[in-house]
Amino acid sequence: MNDTRQFHLLAGQVSDRGARSDEAIYQALWEAIVEHRLSPGARLPEDALSHAFGVSRTTVRRVLQRLALEQLVTLRPNRGAQITSPTPSEARDVFRARRLMEGALLAEVLPRITPADLKALEAIHERETRAEREHAIRLSAEFHSRLVAIADSPSLSEALSQLISRTSLIIAVYGRARAGCPCEHIELIELLRDGALAPVQRWMSAHLTRIEASLDFTASGDALPDFEHLFGHHREQSAS
Amino acid sequence: MNDTRQFHLLAGQVSDRGARSDEAIYQALWEAIVEHRLSPGARLPEDALSHAFGVSRTTVRRVLQRLALEQLVTLRPNRGAQITSPTPSEARDVFRARRLMEGALLAEVLPRITPADLKALEAIHERETRAEREHAIRLSAEFHSRLVAIADSPSLSEALSQLISRTSLIIAVYGRARAGCPCEHIELIELLRDGALAPVQRWMSAHLTRIEASLDFTASGDALPDFEHLFGHHREQSAS
DNA sequence: TGGAAAATGCTTGTATACAATCATCGAGAC
DNA sequence: GTCTCGATGATTGTATACAAGCATTTTCCA
Question: Of the candidates A26, A13, A189, which has an alpha carbon nearest to the alpha carbon of residue A106?
Fold first, then answer.
């Protein structure tokens, strides 16, 4: 019943509609997914989204396809889109991939890191500790993204960003307590300041393993989120 | 003048049209790009493609968006799609990313490799040496894809596959002689058989660096490929 | 009363129509 | 003769219409 209002709050964030609204809609959905306001398994009817964002289904569909290629939503033929529920094996794969990539990337990060970078990471960590649960999850992802960005390799940054987003999804399904303890990140900053590669790599691997170990793969994780409360009303009934 | 016929030959490969033609069209375009039958800079008019493949622009557009997200084609607003011409800095980044990822991945490959895997790699190498120039490029990409697949990590395989495809694009623009000497791959197979990690990693890094070093970054690389000869005529004028 | 089959409603898949934007070509003025 | 401005053609961007598919519910029969 009235799916539309569920997404309206989401659409509220979208200011510049009209020209190139794809990016805005993508951002809104991406944040909602990463911040766990949209739970895995949630259905994403094109009609409701198009109405909420004030665009046609064509535009919504394009954004959904992009999210699907990034594995954040699953597109089943004739069944529509829903937030991806990673399987346990997919989850383990993502952590393995992250351990490998982030470990290797740190060797590129360390020689390039500047005091400004450390300051930026500290700032994110600071906000992490203060933020609400939801924002903390996004900020934790932002911390890792920012870290790998120091390596200055667009290809690797993008690949890892996708893995990081998917991690948020995994935590949404299998996470018990909070996601990987943001408090831990301060330890990494100290190690980065020291500048020794091996300890940094060891810490990162352990960090990711700790998060993975904190998961409970027995949970099912099928939920129907409350879209109405999520995105609020973007415009009344509208339409001509 | 009649762009349509340019793509018809491409469409000829697409047998199962109708239900879920996306994958077939994607494959056809992907192969044409990787095999250098479609050169960087080539424009991809939606109308011509839709006519050649016998589908609507909607379907073509979806495939083009996917290729764009994989960085194989570039989508400029109101200007349409064209095969991506990687910049020199993008090219260098791809090689750096590949050195890093493939190097790290080999540590995962080596413990898992089986005699069957070695046989499969040998088979690809065999076909590489016999194939025409065009197919050799695709087979070289396939060799690397197959190699990383042994690590059994879907996430990493997909990420690396994209980098490998982009490498083909880079060679198309900046390559002088043939792409990285397929003959070299036999050396890697021998090293893999030995089973020592360090030499394998060293070889791979050197292999990629050799390919990169063989490039000429002074070339511009703007060309308009002959679509008609490329894809042939898929169906006459058709349409109702 | 329980199960199965059919019908209805809703959602997606595809194609097409119309509007907007850009590139090209031509004409005119300096 | 060259440069600039205007018009025309082609291509893309968006929205909508229609058809096809799935899910649910209702109804009928055992």
Answer: A189
